[in-house]
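<discrete_fold_record>
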Amino acid sequence: MTAQGVVDFINDNLTWILIAFLLVAGLYFTVVTRGVQFRLFGTMWKVIFNSRSNAQGGISSFQAFAISLASRVGTGNIVGVAIALTLGGPGAVFWMWVMALLGMATAFTEATLAQLYKVPHKEDGTFRGGPAYYIQSGLKSR
């Protein structure tokens, strides 16, 4: 088997494994958080649009939302959606919505873990956090 054949085999099989993993993880986090993406949907919008009053010199909830959205949506997402709509039609829209709704619970869990395991930076008093920190602190693994 050529190197290209190996890469094609891994690519074809890894795609389905990752789809299944993301679906299972989304379902798991939806159950564990008791459907946080549905229960707190209205609260999310209230917090975002009434955020300047609670900023207290820091960034507002809306600013944090805008930064998060900008970091998650890139050119690949926009082009990927356009291609999926062209090739997949209405079925692609349905599955994108299903994965987006389940992905909300995964994103909520990631953000919560980042807040729980953030650490203060000694020099300037700011905080550091994210996957590297919660994996190291929470799982006791590097």
